[in-house]
């Protein structure tokens, strides 16, 4: 029996490849502690959908630890006060945790590290969240990357560290330490709006592992060609498990690499590379956030600092509710509200619609996604919105505006996705479903649709909105020259 070691659990709610837990168990008696502290997250405390997920994930993690003979101590309130109290009660020889990378968290973690060190406690921190930590990849001159392809190339020359073995046993410290229950954290909404989310997800560590296995068996081999088509659902849906640290990207990376080597299949290798490339996008998002800490609120590209945005409550509400009159946009926004998830291609179309067609600031869209996504992740969300706004890490030399009609015709050709989420359009023939406002009256009648009543007219006209966005962009460029 060794001495106790506090393991401060955060975005690492898992037994597989959890280095802080693993090393604490090796070096002494691991005492896992979770502290729910909204202030620690500053303005990025969890949104409603993420709170629901955390409730499930934490309950699952608590029960997994219990089954292995251990106990997860749950507390809420100020992090340092809670840690301080626990240090006093448990008298650990050290405190271990897995690192986080959001700028405001890095700053607070450094304070915690100083305070614990001043108590003569050994502090050890580990990487559990990324393939490559933000400072591991740099340009020759030491600067961070701003372009994905160059970043990706650089990552291919670096090794990804090996995962640590799965935790199989805990031992308990002798004294009983007080813990709150997961329900005490009051993460679930008082009005139950989460029933479709509940039906959609199994938010446990094993749920994530099963989903990965299913992806591997049924979807991986068509990932590259299928991932852009929302109705095909050829993507993995693993993002919330990564966001809460229930899955380790490093485990998936090494597993796929090994499988590709043993299978000797060029097509498996190609598909798994495409999938792993997305995990590198995730790392890139953290690289950018870490090195450009203001990008959650300010443009990465300073050209966009003075972009003239519109305030339009009615348009913003129509977008949030999936009532814009553009079926693909509305389908995406309704999928998000009902399931806490939206397909990546549709995220691009809906976010572009908000910032380009409606000229509403990307920060407002990012905030809505933050509240409603079960995979809300500060790095990925910031990267996604800045990329779409044109103010982020995008190598395209032009002002990209997604056309919600042609995107719909191309990526949801048979309108299966639209029909799933916008059922009032279900009887409309596919020729018209991507732009219902062009449907002849008799066809609308037959389909039981009354535009403006059962489904809205478009809130802005596409060509005019596109022209307005381009005009804003050209004005901005011109103002830089004067
Ligand atoms: C405006 C906007 C906002 C976004 N907000 C988030 C967010 O809050 N949280 C989030 O996890 N993703 C976000 N994304 C990225 C992407 O849409 C999701 O990661 C993806 O749809 C998750 O589905 P999946 O797990 O099936 O992905 P898969 O295609 O199966 O990809 C595997 C994993 O790679 C990572 N990944 C995939 N695409 C991206 C990407 N473009 N950027 C960074 N990582 C990626 C995710 O961790 C994902 O789980 C956003 C994209 C946009 C355009």
Structure description:
It is a single chain. By secondary structure, this protein is mainly alpha-helical. It folds into 3 domains: 1-128, 3-Layer(aba) Sandwich (Rossmann fold), CATH 3.40.50.620; 130-161 and 204-291, Serine Threonine Protein Phosphatase 5, Tetratricopeptide repeat, CATH 1.25.40; 302-477, Orthogonal Bundle (DNA Cyclobutane Dipyrimidine Photolyase, subunit A, domain 3). The chain is built from 21 helices and 5 strands. It has a 5-stranded parallel β-sheet with strand order 3-2-1-4-5. Strand 2, helix 2 and strand 3 (73-76) form a beta-alpha-beta unit. Helix 5 packs across helix 11, helix 11 crosses helix 16 (378-389) and helix 15 (362-372) packs antiparallel against helix 16. It is globular and about 80 Å long. The N and C termini lie far apart (72 Å). The model has no long low-confidence stretch (mean pLDDT 96). Residues 227, 235-239, 242-243, 278-279, 281-282, 285, 344, 347-348, 351, 369, 373, 375-377, 380-381, 383-385, 388 line the site of flavin-adenine dinucleotide. It is an enzyme of class 4 (lyase). Its cofactor is FAD. One of its GO terms (molecular function) is deoxyribodipyrimidine photo-lyase activity. Residues 3-131 form the Photolyase/cryptochrome alpha/beta domain.
Key descriptive features of the protein:
lyase, 3 domains, Cryptochr/Photolyase_FAD-bd, DNA Cyclobutane Dipyrimidine Photolyase, subunit A, domain 3, 21 helices, five-stranded parallel β-sheet, 6% strand, Serine Threonine Protein Phosphatase 5, Tetratricopeptide repeat, Rossmann fold, Crypto/Photolyase_FAD-like_sf, 5 strands, binds flavin-adenine dinucleotide, mainly alpha, EC 4.1.99.3, 482 residues
């Amino acid at each position: 029996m060794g001495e106790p070691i506090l393991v401060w659990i955060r975005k690492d709610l898992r037994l597989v490849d959890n280095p802080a837990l693993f090393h604490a168990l090796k070096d002494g008696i691991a005492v896992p502690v979770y502290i729910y502290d909204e202030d620690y997250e500053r303005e990025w405390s969890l949104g409603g959908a993420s709170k629901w997920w955390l409730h499930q994930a934490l309950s699952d993690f608590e029960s997994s630890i219990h089954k292995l003979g251990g106990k997860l101590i749950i507390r809420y309130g100020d992090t340092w006060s809670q840690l301080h109290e626990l240090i006093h009660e448990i008298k650990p020889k050290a405190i271990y945790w897995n690192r986080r990378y959001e700028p405001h968290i890095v700053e607070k973690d450094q304070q915690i590290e100083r305070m614990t060190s001043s108590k003569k406690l050994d502090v050890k921190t580990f990487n559990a969240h990324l393939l490559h930590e933000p400072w591991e990849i740099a340009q020759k001159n030491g600067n961070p990357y701003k372009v994905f392809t160059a970043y990706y190339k650089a990552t291919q020359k670096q090794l990804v560290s090996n995962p640590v073995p799965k935790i199989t046993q805990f031992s308990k410290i002798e004294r009983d330490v007080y813990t709150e229950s997961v329900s005490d954290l009051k993460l679930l909404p008082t009005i139950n709006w989460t029933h479709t989310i509940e039906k959609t997800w199994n938010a446990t560590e094993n749920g994530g592992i099963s989903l990965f296995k299913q992806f591997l068996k049924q979807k991986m081999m068509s990932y590259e060609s299928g991932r852009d088509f929302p109705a095909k659902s050829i993507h993995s849906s693993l993002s919330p498990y990564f966001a809460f640290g229930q899955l380790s990207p490093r485990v998936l990376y090494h597993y796929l690499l090994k499988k590709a080597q043993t299978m000797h299949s060029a097509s498996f290798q190609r598909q798994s590379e495409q999938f792993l490339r997305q995990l590198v996008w995730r790392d890139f998002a953290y690289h950018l956030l870490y090195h450009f800490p203001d990008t959650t609120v300010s443009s990465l590209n300073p050209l966009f600092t003075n972009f003239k945005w519109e305030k339009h409550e009615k348009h913003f509400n129509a977008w949030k509710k999936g009532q814009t009159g553009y079926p693909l946009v509305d389908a995406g926004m309704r999928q998000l509200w009902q399931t806490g998830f939206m397909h990546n291609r549709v995220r691009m179309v809906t976010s572009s619609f908000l910032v380009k067609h409606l000229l509403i600031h990307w920060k407002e869209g990012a905030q809505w996604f933050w509240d409603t996504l079960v995979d809300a992740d500060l790095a990925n969300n910031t990267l996604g919105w800045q990329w779409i706004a044109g103010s982020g890490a995008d190598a395209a030399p032009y002002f990209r505006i997604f056309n919600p009609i042609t995107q719909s015709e191309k990526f949801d050709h048979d309108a299966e996705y639209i029909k799933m989420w916008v059922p009032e359009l279900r009887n409309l023939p596919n020729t018209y479903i991507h732009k219902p406002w062009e449907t002849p009256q008799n066809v609308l009648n037959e389909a039981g649709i009354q535009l403006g009543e059962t489904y809205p007219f478009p809130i802005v006209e596409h060509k005019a909105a596109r022209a307005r966005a381009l005009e804003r962009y050209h004005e901005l460029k011109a103002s830089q020259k004067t």
